Amino acid sequence: MTDANEKSGQAEKCNAPNLAQGRDILRLLDEAANERAAGAARMQCRVCWYIYDPEEGCPAWDIEPGTPFSALPEEFTCPDCGQPKSAFLPAED
Ligand SMILES: [Zn+2]
Question: Which residues form the Rubredoxin-like domain (predicted)?
Fold first, then answer.
């Protein structure tokens, strides 16, 4: 009985690093999703590749630095090519 308990304990120890890694990846994915939801993500026009950076805002539209993409007015269009907000996709880093 004691031997069996020790063996199962060792098996758990062996698996622990893998489980922790899996949880870390899920946590990182969660954080990335939360950042997108909070509007911290840069958004890129899929037509001309203009990037809207919330940290910089958009001078052409009098958008203050620190304004998330989700807070832009509905009439906002790409300052370079005139595409609507729906043409923007999350920018890859
Ligand atoms: Zn554009």
Answer: 40-91
